[in-house]
Amino acid sequence: MAATGSTASGESAFYVSTPIYYVNDAPHLGHAYTTVAGDVLTRWHRQRGEKVWYLTGTDEHGQKVMRTAESHGVTPQEWADKLVEEAWKPLWEHLQIANDDFIRTTEERHTRRVQEFVQDLYDKGEIYRGGYEGPYCVHCEEFKSPGELLEGDLCPIHKKPIEWLQEENYFFKLSEYGPRLLEFYEANPDFVQPASARNEVVQFVRQGLQDLSISRSTFDWGIPIPWDPKHVIYVWIDALLNYATAVGYGSDQAKFDTTWPADVHLVGKDILRFHAVIWPAMLMANGLSLPGRVFANGWLMVGGEKMSKSNLTGISPRELTEHFGVDAYRYYFLRAIPFGQDGSFSWEDFSARYTSELANDFGNLASRVAAMIGKYFDGTLPEPGDAGAAEQAIAEGLATATAQADRLIGDNLDFSTGLGAIFDFVKQVNGYLSDQAPWKVAKDESPEGQARLATILYTAAESLRAVAVLLNPVMPGTCEKLWASLGAEPHLGPLADQRIADVAKWGRLPAGASVVKGEILFPRLDDAKS
RNA sequence: GGGGCGGUAGCUCAGCCGGUCAGAGCAUCGGACUCAUAAUCCGUGGGUCGUGGGUUCAAGUCCCACCCGCCCUACCA
Fold first, then answer.
1. What was the pLDDT predicted at A309?
2. Which one of A115, A152, A418, A525 has the fewest beta carbons within 10 angstroms of its own beta carbon?
3. A78-107 pLDDT per residue, tens
4. Does A261 sit behind a cis peptide bond, omega within 30 degrees of 0 on the bond before it?
5. What is the pLDDT of residues A398-423, one digit of tens each?
6. Which residue from A170, A16, A33, A2 is spatially nearest to A99, judged by alpha carbons?
7. Which nucleotide is nearest to A239 (CA to C1')?
8. Is the confidence metric ipTM above 0.85 for this complex?
9. How far does the CA of A341 sit from the C1' of B62, in Å?
10. How buried is residue A303: exposed, middle or buried, by Cβ count under 10 Å (0-12/13-18/19+)?
């Protein structure tokens, strides 16, 4: 069972994907939530020193895009191009997303390989021609699922009677994969996470699977079925394959070998089934190894309602970043909401956490330490004297925080608790300063007093050095400022090159470093807005 | 209809196999301090643990019913 990473060569990349987002609309908070989570996860692994591949992109085929484009008087391709260039890519840049690739399903590197993949399945007898029968709304021009019909078999949109229609389609023999899928879930209990999502998937598969129609012939915005071009490939089959085509499937074997399969597929829970059932079945059918994990994140709720494209009560990502800043935005959702659960958020809660955790605890700590080193040592980090029990406790606190954060964030995708561990350390350092009261020690001008003062401030600065590294995956802009403020780069090199494994090694920031009080890390919010 | 999850201090939530489990963070209030972004540190607050029954020496913690909210029950990305 290929549950995890793959090729024996140690070069195998930690491969993480987001869903490829449907270009029907502009990105909203939910899209950004998933994408930021993946970015933090991959940045964390890069700081572990691992080879990483972070993929995102857009899903551009399908009837909805076609219709939306028509209603705007442009071709589907034009519509997709416009949204990708004007909305999607700019937002990811704005949010500091460090993706390694961005795939679009209309790109030839994708469409050609999708055809090959489907042709392979056809040749292997995994796909057959059949008829799909179901309730069809002539006004919508599409099939409905029986469950969504209103009483009396009315179309939920048009409130008009549907008719039963039959369409010739190609089907994938999904029904044959139930037992193998269950076996796989059993052998890989962490394949679908969180556990609640796994239970739903397992229960669903146990009910028995039906074959999946994988072609459409009522519209043409899609990838043609190679042996029967009157049909286009069902958009989900098309979309899922991006995870393979983007990393060289069928075109760049070397790259494919060192990247495939994905270690983590991040998905919204609305598309869990496609990733946890259909996708592995497709891969089994074609003899490819299976991904390591499918992790479903929850909904963002605002005022108790789900955030989504249909519910545009939405606050846009940019509204929030304009007020709170990009780094605080990246931090907030991961800190406030346990990853994998639905989470309610509010402007008030964001403000509260910004002020308490970011400005007061973290930002202010950086300020006071830099200020004192400036005031008492002219901005040159002093040589510490002997460490006492208090300093020992700080070093141990750092080791604990680092170990916890590494496991929780890097392995478990428990960003909330992991960040909590780092911020517990920040609070510990604030407490250490209160206890040691360096501003009082500074009044003792004896050599012993000055040595003690040096030890205290060195301890605080060294703690900040570690915090900058630990928080860099989440708040790269802020941590870069802190790194500069500590004068770390000339001695330790670029922040992004700092390794998680070295964070807790005490004493890395050398005496003599030039510490300056830079700009305020998290300025107080103008409370105009509430 | 069937299945699942949740309803614990003002807010967001921890509480595994029943017996210091009535908690944490934030907010509030009081105190300390002054290096710092009027920040920090310490202390404090009494919430019928959704409702009503039941089991037990003992129940947020088990059982039953009910109320409320959410999710799943296949081809919408």
1. 45
2. A152
3. 999 999 999 999 999 999 999 999 999 999
4. yes
5. 999 999 999 999 999 999 999 999 99
6. A16
7. B77
8. yes
9. 27
10. exposed
Establish whether A479 is a catalytic residue. no
Q: What are the structure tokens assigned to A160, written together?
A: 């008009």
Amino acid identity at A508: R
B chain positions with any atom within 7 Å of a protein CB: 3-5, 11-14, 25-27, 32-42, 69-77
CA dihedral A299, A522, A469, A380 (to 10 degrees): 180
- For domain A14-315, give its CATH number from 3.30.460.80, 3.40.50.300, 3.40.50.620, 1.20.1250.20: 3.40.50.620
Q: Give the number of other Cβ atoms within 10 Å of residue A219's Cβ.
A: 15
A306 given a catalytic annotation? yes
Domain ranges of chain A: 14-315, 347-527
Establish whether A140 is an annotated binding residue: yes
Q: Which of A82, A173, A255, A309 is catalytic?
A: A309
CB A296 within 8 A of CB A192: yes
Indicate the class that CATH gives domain A347-527: mainly alpha
Name which of A311, A270, A232 is nearest A63 in CA terms.
A232
Q: Catalytic one among A306, A375, A491, A517?
A: A306
Question: CA–CA separation, A332 vs A416, rounded Å?
Answer: 9
